[in-house]
Amino acid sequence: MKNIFTLLALTITFSMNAQTGNTSTGTGALASGSLTGSKNSAFGYQSLYSNTTGFENTASGFSSLYSNTTGSYNTASGSYSLYFNTTGSYNTASGSYSLYSNTTGFENTASGFSSLYSNTTGNYNTASGMYSLRFNTTGYNNTATGNESLYFNTTGYNNTATGEESLHTNTTGYWNTATGNSSLRTNITGYSNTASGYESLYFNTTGSYNTASGMFSLGYNTTGG
Questions:
Q1: Residue 125 and residue 117: Cα distance in Å, rounded?
Q2: Among candidates 223, 221, 194, which has minimal Cα distance to 206?
Q3: Which residues contact 25 (CB under 8 A, 6 or more apart)?
Q4: Rounded Cα–Cα distance for residues 103 and 63 (Å)
């Protein structure tokens, strides 16, 4: 008898429309009354809840892609991932709260808890690691690999940070490359810097056009360039 009730419950919460190709599992998933989008898959409570004409989206997790209306080709995996996305397309979010605030930004990839959390309209960003690019809002073409890499970046662009806490405090600096844990860690507005090695250019804040190679290299440079 228990197995029968379980089967009935699964039948009730699972929905598939053969005409549109939409598939949903979970209360409130793909629940919009004006849904015309096709080939969407929603798995989890209120996932893709507001979707109207968006198509070929995949949402897996509690309230993932909740606000999406017309955005397409998005993949959200994890609770509240891509939660506020409305028209942004070609985004991939993996991890709870990843790309949480994204609205119209497109072609972003976030992997890790709260990665690219504050991104709203920034495009072409890649964040891999917990809290990577956490405060990015409109910055674009940034690549952050490692926990809390490019953590405070807001509008900076074309930055590459590889290593835990690399370019950690960068806010508006651009065209910086940091390779190694804590490299260019305290950079704020400096630009066109290259740091390779553990804690290289560690204390640089506003200095620009610096090149440091090796552990602790130019570690105490602040504004020189």
A1: 12
A2: 223
A3: 13, 14, 15, 42, 43, 44
A4: 15
Chain centroid to Cα 118, Å, comes to 9
AA identity, residue 110: A
* CB half-sphere exposure, 12, CA atoms < 13 A: 7
In which element (H, E) is residue 4 found? helix 2-13
Measured in degrees and rounded to the nearest 5, phi and psi for residue 100 equal -60, -45
Distance CA 212, CA 208 (A): 12
Joined tokens for residue 36 = 């015309």
The pLDDT assigned to 3 comes to 52
The token duo for 182 is 């804590």
Joined tokens for residue 148: 């809390």
Q: Which residues of the chain have pLDDT under 70?
A: 1-19
On whether the CB atoms of residues 215 and 198 are closer than 8 A, the answer is yes
Q: Which of 107, 100, 116, 101 is nearest to 149 (CA)?
A: 116
- The residue with tokens 């892609």 is 65
pLDDT at residue 14, as a whole number? 54
Residue 174 to residue 185: CA distance in whole angstroms: 14
E strand or H helix that includes residue 76: strand 75-77
The pLDDT score that the predictor gives to residue 213 is 98
The DSSP line for 135-182 is: T-SS--S-EEESTTTTTT-SS--S-EEESTTTTTT-SS--S-EEESTT
From residue 148, alpha-carbon distances to 34, 108, 176 in Å are 40, 17, 16
Question: Per-residue pLDDT tens for 107-119?
Answer: 999 999 999 999 9
Question: Which residues pair with residue 59 across a beta bridge?
Answer: 42, 76
